[in-house]
Amino acid sequence: MIFWPRRRRRPPAQQPSRVPLPGLWSRGVEFGDDALTFVDYVQPAASVCAEPVLSVGGIRDVDPAGFPPEIRTTAGETLFVSKLREGDLRQFAERHRIPQIARPDIWMRLLEPFLDTTIGHGRQADTDGWLRERGLSEADIARARARVGPMMTAYNELLWEGRI
Known about the structure:
Elements: E1 28-31, E2 35-39, H1 47-50, E3 53-55, E4 59-63, E5 70-73, E6 78-80, H2 86-95, H3 106-110, H4 121-133, H5 138-160
Antiparallel strand pairs: 1-2, 2-3, 4-5, 5-6
């Protein structure tokens, strides 16, 4: 007869939190009356690291349905918020009449050749055509893929070997 060890319950103070994680990009975003405050944004070059308050006047448009949701500033910077705050971002934009724009995922298409599946020539031609329709030239596409190709290959190798 085999006896399996009983699973010990943690005391209540040690139970894991059921609160969802705030997201990959920052510890959170506070939605104020006329500004957003970013808390611990993880990209050190982002403007909100030095000045965490972004006023409504500094927001050009938002894409709440993006993955992750995006905020485009009047300076042309793109900031991200947790997908968990999609509804809050949408309400903030509606309240302040900030345009909500659905952006196509250009990077998803640019990185498609680096997926771990084989992509046929027909699919690749469709993808490249889609990118050209959105303003990228063949040279732009080749340059972007050449720039990120070595990093994507290294990442995939680590992923396939189980190191990530």
